[in-house]
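This part of the workshop introduces the protein records we will be handling. A record pairs a protein's sequence with a compact description of its fold. Comparing a sequence with its tokens is the quickest way to learn the format. To make this concrete, we reproduce a full record directly below:
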Amino acid sequence: LHLEGRGYPPLGKLARLAVMGAEHVEVCSSCRSSARHCTICASPRPVYLFDVGAYSACGSCKAVFHSICLRRAGSQCPYCLCPAVGRSDG
């Protein structure tokens, strides 16, 4: 094994597969339908469950956020802190 990993062939193949998967999601309507949106930042950039580094969900109410947004919010779900915020009655 190479210390940096870049010279390790399976790592290069895995990186290419990850890029291919991300590109697929951009064009596949079925995959795009699984997108959620962060209500803390209201960014149009979607959050996907498989994007482990960017995805955070509240353990109580299951609201979805960008991980960085939830950290900036003190790791506290705004819906659980104030249930009336952002929720409609149907």
The chain has a mean pLDDT of 79. The two ends are 56 Å apart (CA to CA). The chain is about 35% helix and 5% strand. The longest strand covers residues 55-57.
